[in-house]
Design goal:
Layout (H helix, E strand, L loop, with lengths): L29 E5 L6 E5 L12 E5 L1 E3 L3 E6 L5 E9 L4 E7 L9 E4 L4 E8 L5 E7 L3 H8 L25 E4 L11 H9 L3 E7 L22 E5 L1 H12 L4 E4 L1 H9 L10 E5 L14 E5 L6 H10 L1 H13 L10 E4 L1
Parallel strand pairs: 1-17, 3-12, 3-14, 4-11, 14-16
Antiparallel strand pairs: 1-2, 5-6, 5-8, 6-7, 7-10, 8-9, 9-10, 12-13, 13-15, 16-17
Helix pairs in contact: 5-6
């Protein structure tokens, strides 16, 4: 498997299939069901997902909450425009950020946002040109950020989001993500209740999604790709629910690649999930043996991305690319606000 090339995961996607806006009704997205063993596909609507879940299965959801992480401001000295994207919170109001224009934001540069309600100083440059910035404000950080920040939509979405909540799952709880765990965007509270009433267990883990999710794989040999690190947490309750499901012969079905990476990172070699917090830079590509996950609900991902590699590890590269080409032919909607796929 060492000879896997990034170009092996390329497919040609017409630009008009990149969904620019969320659908009116979250659960009315389309659903392509892929059998990972045979490669057979079926076409459904997302609200029918319950019919593919069995009593005793466990659905694992990522309850991270996206923060309005994009700030527009100015350099105090010159008034020159600056854009700051919050990536990771450190202690004492210091954040690791992505800054544009980076060249004009050397250590010591002072920044102002929203009539001076928020001020900041660039402290240092770290990995990949990111900047550590210390923020200064009066009041509660979350409130200041909520009034000044914008949702950090991925670069391929050019439309402005009318309702902030539509880039948030209905069960989002713990703030910290720079991007939504998008497979979860299709669920409504009613649909989750219907699934639970059927005898399917629902458990929550937390992984704060970084923007590395969208970073293209530049190395031609995928083993040379440097994977970004993300912070996760698995509670005692979630670990027990997943382990009990496996022991009873039920399936563990992850909603999204983030939930998948979380439980695969938190498990030992024998497939037992352990509670706790951690950092993960797990990179899943064909040849990987899943320890916990049995099935996956996911969106349609970018060509040559680590996410296409992850789903190919589960269902086989040819099955996935065939399914993607069928989705393109059937005019499915792609990426964050797009349609969904259930790999069973």
């Amino acid at each position: 498997m060492n000879s896997l090339k990034t170009s092996d995961f390329y497919f040609d996607l017409p630009e008009e299939l990149i969904a620019q806006d969320p659908l009116e009704d979250r659960s009315s997205s389309r659903l392509l069901v892929l059998d990972k063993t045979t490669g057979a596909t079926e076409h459904h609507i997302f609200k029918e997902i319950g019919s593919f879940l069995n009593p005793g299965d466990c659905l694992v959801l990522n309850n991270t909450k996206v923060i309005p992480a994009r700030l527009y401001g100015a350099r105090e000295a010159t008034g020159g425009a600056v854009e700051v994207l919050l990536l990771k919170r450190n202690a004492d109001d210091v954040w690791e950020t992505l800054v544009k224009p980076g060249k004009k934001c050397k250590p010591g540069t002072r920044l102002v946002f929203g009539d001076g309600r928020l001020k900041a100083e660039v402290l240092e440059t770290v990995d990949e040109g990111n900047r550590l910035i210390k923020f200064e404000y009066d009041g509660i950080w979350e409130e200041v950020l909520d009034s000044l920040g914008e949702m950090p939509l991925p670069p391929y979405i050019t439309h402005k989001l009318q309702d902030k909540n539509r880039y948030q799952t209905v069960y989002a709880k713990y703030e910290g993500s720079a991007a939504a765990p998008t497979a979860g965007l299709h669920f409504t509270k009613e649909l989750l209740a219907e699934i639970e009433n059927k005898g399917v267990k629902i458990c929550y883990v937390t992984l704060h999604v970084g923007l590395g999710t969208f970073r293209p794989v530049k190395a031609e040999n995928i083993l040379e790709h440097h994977m970004h690190t993300e912070v996760y947490q698995v509670t005692e309750d979630a670990a027990k629910m997943i382990n009990d499901t496996k022991a009873a012969g039920g399936r563990v079905i992850c909603v999204g690649t983030t939930s998948c990476r979380t439980i695969e990172s938190a498990s030992d070699e024998s497939g037992i999930v352990h509670a706790g917090n951690g950092d993960t830079s797990i990179f899943i590509y064909p040849g990987y043996k899943f320890k916990v996950l049995d099935a996956l609900i996911t969106n349609f991902h970018l060509p040559e991305s680590t996410l296409v590699m992850l789903v190919s590890a589960l269902a086989g590269r040819e099955n996935v690319l065939n399914a993607y080409n069928e989705a393109i032919k059937e005019r499915y909607r792609f990426f964050s606000f797009g349609d969904a796929m259930f790999i069973r």
